[in-house]
Amino acid sequence: MIEGVYLHPLKQITVPKGDLWHAFKASDEGFYGFGEAYLTQIKSHQVKGWKRHNRYVLNLVVLVGVVKFVIYDDREGSITRGQFQEIVLSPRDNYQRLTVASGLWMAFAGVDTNQTSMLMDFIPELHNPDEADRKELSEIPYNFNV
User: 49: closest CA among 84, 6, 21, 91?
Assistant: First the structure.
């Protein structure tokens, strides 16, 4: 795994009138404060990215569908510099919270062939569009196979 990337298994509790799904608590590992939570969709066979947050630690939970996350480390001095990591999350098959440290590049793809996927991101401060760096998908060579 890339230094600064962590997976946290999440509880799913079966309840007769509708299940309960844990996402994130202030007492959880990876909690660095709360600024906001937002939802984003990714259509099947589409890719969003590359994006690198300079201050935010991301905490991502896939709520609907299947999402493939790709993280790339180009940080000076990192023991995992130059490495990619793929993580596929889904509420059906791999329900976990993904924590991504600041300074790492991330892109993600919708890999559920039947529906648009949706994920939630918890960030430690209010969103600031100037806080992140962006690159076109072609600027970090990677084959997403979508």
Answer: 84
Domain presence at residue 141: no
Report whether 24 contacts 31 (CB < 8 A): yes
Q: Which helix (H) or strand (E) holds 8?
A: strand 5-9
Percent of the chain clearing pLDDT 90 (strictly above):
95
* Cβ contact 114:25 at 8 Å: no
Distance CA 26, CA 24 (A): 7
Determine phi and psi for 106, rounding to 5 degrees.
Answer: -140, 140
DSSP state string for 64-130:
ES-EEEEEE---TT-TTTT-EEEEEEBTTTB-EEEEE-TT-EEEEEE--SSS-EEEEEEESS---GG
> Could you tell me if residue 144 is inside a domain?
no
CATH number where 55 lies? 2.60.120.10
Query: Does residue 80 form part of some domain?
Result: yes
Query: Which of 53, 54, 56, 65 minimizes the C-alpha distance to 107?
Result: 53
Q: What is the average pLDDT across 126-133?
A: 94
How many Cα atoms sit within 13 Å of 106 on the Cβ side? Answer: 25
